[in-house]
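Q: My hope is that you can spare some time for a protein that puzzles me. Underneath my words sits a plain record pairing an amino acid chain with its backbone structure tokens. Those tokens are not coordinates but codes from a learned vocabulary of shapes. Thank you; the sequence and its tokens follow:
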Amino acid sequence: MGGEDRSARVWARAVAGTALGAASAVVEAAALVPLLVLLPLAAARPGRRWLHRLLRPLERVERWRLASLFGIEIVGEPGPLRVSAYLAVRCPVGLFGGLVLGFFLPSGVYLAFSPLAVLDGNPVAVVPFGLALVYLSVQGIVGLVGTERWLARRLLGPSRQDLLRERVAELTASRAGVVTAVDRERRRIERDLHDGLQQRLVLVGMALGRARRDPGSARGRELVEQAHREMGNAIRDLKEVAWRVYPAVLAESGLAAALDGLAARSELPIRVSCRVPAEIPPAVETAAYFVVAEAVTNTVKHAGATRVDVHVESEGNALVVRVSDDGAGGADPSGTGLSGLAGRVGALDGSLAVDSPVGGPTTVTAVLPCG
């Protein structure tokens, strides 16, 4: 029952919107004739403002009709030329809607019911023609509503529903990217633990086991020393893995200290310039750090660079991270590392741009909203 009521309300609004659109089309047609003569004034800024003031009442009526009766809420403020184009193209559509409601639909109803002696008792043979006319009128209303919505989106601007659908698509894509990036990072951590830390601990265990069989001898002492060195290496590898997961200094001392630590541990000389507000969201701080870390890692592995410059600064309500190097360029934004970064940045409504022509230099820029 609720679905039937909703369908009836939708149809009632469609008919009311078509009728009001026919009436407004008459007014708009009468108004557009003198406005077309004045349209060249829109070439100058004062003329555009004057023309926009003249068109503003008509635009407001159309916005209200589209939002209230057709469910299309237009966002943004189109210029006078776009409003003029919309009104000019919509006029014949609205007039045709008036023709459908004022002539075709009443004529179809009349022919369909007149043989019942309710009206003037026409022969039964006219009933199929009346029903066909009613059907074409209904389909005409459906087509008119669809045309009205399409014209509004194309000429006045996107609707709120369009923006919501686009936003949902962006969030779906960013969520998929984050899931992929997290899975890729997990696999890398597993590989580092297995190939690095686990192998070193195995060596430590083997060396200590052999030393126990020959305690006190020179060979036993040498094995203990070897185990000690491997344990130091294992601790170093464990710290490296921990830094990749989340650097403790980031939470304790902030982004600038974490980037300085990253620069100190890098194989390449890194010049860091970090000017950020005292309070930025932890998620933004973490994303900025990993943008720099991944960009530096890519540079070390693939670019053949001799130096890296890192600039982090606040611009408006966003944190902008730029990492540039003097390497050979040719970085692929769709590669594993950079695509993972794009997903991480996109999850925060940010953007990642990679400028890396062949021959260099390469610049990775991330914009992270702090709101």
In short: The CA atoms of residues 328 and 359 lie 5 Å apart. The mean pLDDT is 76.
